[in-house]
Amino acid sequence: MPLSRVTRPVPYLAVALGLALAATGRARARPGVSADIVDTAQGGGRVLSLTFDDGPNPADTLRLLGVLRRHRITAVFCLWGEHVDAHPAVVRRIAADGHALGNHGMRHDDMSSWPPERIAADLRETNEAIRRAVPHARIRYFRAPYGAWGRTAAVAAALGMRPLGWRLAVGDWEPPGADELVRRLRDGVTPGAVVLLHDGGGDRGQTVDAVDRVATALKAERWRFTLPQRRS
Ligand SMILES: [Zn+2]
């Protein structure tokens, strides 16, 4: 089933969450952000969104930032809270380069069975870690660890973050070699696709190499790199 279809608007959940958020007095629902899991890039025609999970991861993330800067690509970084606390300076570099920030949970837990209040606490803790690194940072997206959404999409939207899915994953966590990653990316891209990649969680040198090569090829074919949609 496409991820974009896996949404379950549950009124009682919204009410319960609203009460939970109101009780804390620190956040309220922001109706401008859709709780639908987005897997589509902004704009029409040959557009793509590159999204990178599980960082920051100093060596690979910094090299990736150089690659993206050279190709003038703006991407999304879905940050793992513990890694943010370990490497705040790398998060500052990501933000300074103009990339969009996403929340990927504090400890990369599978939250699919968690109640909304527990999810909200984790997502807030992650945002606080990001804002310790980058005061006043805008945190525009949330991606559930393992794509295990449970009730996280509704909670994220209530906290102002668009749930972010993907249309193409290329198994860069295996890792299968840069040549194979390039082949999977070239074969798999479709207009409007959000692409899932990783700059953290292990040695991601192959991912960085593949992005560099694919960006050159796709730009020559007039593909554009945009951010994922925020509103439905
Ligand atoms: Zn992850």
From TrEMBL:
Classification lineage: Bacteria, Bacillati, Actinomycetota, Actinomycetes, Micromonosporales
Gene3D superfamilies linked to this entry: Glycoside hydrolase/deacetylase
Keyword Hydrolase carried by entry: yes
Domain NodB homology: 46-226
Enzyme Commission number(s) of this protein: 3.-.-.-
The protein's name: Polysaccharide deacetylase family protein
Alphabetized PROSITE patterns for the sequence: NODB
InterPro entries listed in its UniProt record: Glyco_hydro/deAcase_b/a-brl (IPR011330), NODB_dom (IPR002509), Polysacc_deacetylase_ArnD (IPR050248)
Annotated organism of origin: Micromonospora rubida
Pfam families: Polysacc_deac_1
GO molecular function, one term: hydrolase activity
Keywords, sorted A to Z: Hydrolase
Coiled coil: none
Presence of the UniProt keyword rRNA processing in the record: no
